[in-house]
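Fig. S4 source data, part A: sequence.
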Amino acid sequence: MLKLQRLTRFFSSSLSIPIVDVKAFLTESGNYTQDCRTVAKSLETYGCLIIKDPRVNAEQNNKFLDLMEKFFDKRSQ
């Protein structure tokens, strides 16, 4: 969990990358138009965005981050 919190804090504060919570999409409540604009603007500006999904727990997220780190580490060698 600490790894995720550190990464989220770094990216959202250092680069102003938006965090999009998909809970509104899953529960069919919220302002989809604004969320879609946020996604589009983030991809246009940064080429990425941060997705917050309540279905993914910290353990799953850390496994994914470890996998990505290994992948990019191998590509840089």
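Fig. S4 source data, part B ends here. The first strand starts at residue 19 and ends at 21.
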